[in-house]
């Protein structure tokens, strides 16, 4: 089932309740996507997402997946690829955390790093190797615009995303000539259920807008996509600022966010990619 550029027929979503990923899948179903695998921790939200995609006409299945259990990734993801070629993998899981809490709680900080970086590296390599064997496919890795300049307000989350961003770009270079395309997506602040109540950052966007950018990037076989595109220039300008100036800039994001966000993080766990800098 070889994919037409920008119009894959079979999809695997790692982080099956991610609002960005689901918005992307819905767009692709209106094109020609017909088979969708949603991987995530078993939950009513995951089953609800699968039902909604089935209602749109896609043959949708769920598969248990935990970013914090990399020892199980090979078997779990291997079963998906054993069912047939996968044209597109969307790596969209991650946790935001609560910076003010996590920087005084090393185990919590390590959990964020293990989910957002270690778990993603494991899953990405397994999927990339499977697509290399089948000779085609696209791997879309959601990182974060925050990875471009790690700030005081979210340095735990952003540093893990920065590592994932560098890893994914290197993986893309390693796969050149194999038929496998790796695309890094760097969303800014995205308005989702999880970010409700947080102060939006400049150029805040929506899952639907990011999904459109992903589809357009796939069509171009772009190595990197910013969402929105203006973030590229903003981030470049920010990098040029001396740290003494950067520290004095207004800090939007999760540094002071507690309560409702913390409760949602416990519920979402490692099965989605929703956060101020992510989804």
Automatic annotation (TrEMBL):
Keywords: Oxidoreductase
A Pfam family of this chain: adh_short
PANTHER family reported in the protein's UniProt record: 5-KETO-D-GLUCONATE 5-REDUCTASE, DECAPRENYLPHOSPHORYL-2-KETO-BETA-D-ERYTHRO-PENTOSE REDUCTASE
Record's keyword annotation contains Phosphoprotein: no
Keyword Oxidoreductase on entry: yes
Name used for this protein in its record: Decaprenylphospho-beta-D-erythro-pentofuranosid-2 -ulose 2-reductase
InterPro entries in UniProt: NAD(P)-bd_dom_sf (IPR036291), SDR_fam (IPR002347)
Organism: Streptomyces javensis
Signal peptide positions on this chain: none
Family to which the UniProt record says this protein belongs: Belongs to the short-chain dehydrogenases/reductases (SDR) family.
């Amino acid at each position: 089932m070889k994919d037409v550029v920008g119009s894959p027929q079979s999809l695997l979503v790692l982080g099956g309740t991610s609002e960005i990923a689901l918005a992307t899948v819905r767009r692709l179903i209106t094109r020609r996507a017909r088979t969708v695998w949603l991987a995530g921790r078993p939950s009513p939200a995951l089953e609800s997402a699968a039902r909604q995609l089935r209602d749109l006409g896609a043959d949708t299945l769920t598969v248990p997946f935990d970013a914090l259990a990399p020892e199980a990734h090979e078997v779990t993801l291997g079963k998906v690829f054993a069912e047939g070629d996968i044209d597109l993998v969307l790596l969209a899981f991650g946790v935001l955390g609560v910076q003010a809490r996590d920087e005084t709680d090393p185990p919590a900080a390590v959990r964020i790093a293990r989910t957002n970086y270690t778990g993603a590296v494991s899953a990405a390599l397994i999927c990339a190797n499977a697509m290399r064997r089948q000779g085609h496919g696209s791997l879309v890795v959601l990182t974060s615009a925050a990875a471009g300049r790690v700030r005081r307000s979210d340095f735990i989350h952003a540093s893990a995303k920065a590592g994932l961003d560098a890893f994914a770009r290197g993986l893309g270079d390693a796969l050149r000539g194999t038929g496998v395309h790796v695309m890094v997506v760097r969303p800014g602040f995205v308005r989702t259920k999880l970010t409700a109540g947080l102060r939006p950052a400049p150029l805040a966007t929506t899952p639907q807008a990011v999904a459109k950018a992903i589809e357009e990037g796939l069509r171009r076989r772009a190595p990197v996509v910013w969402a929105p595109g203006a973030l590229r220039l903003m981030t470049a300008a920010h990098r040029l600022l001396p740290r003494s100036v950067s520290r004095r800039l207004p800090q939007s994001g999760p540094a002071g966010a507690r309560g409702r966000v913390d409760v949602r993080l416990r519920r979402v766990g490692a099965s989605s990619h929703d956060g101020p800098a992510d989804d």
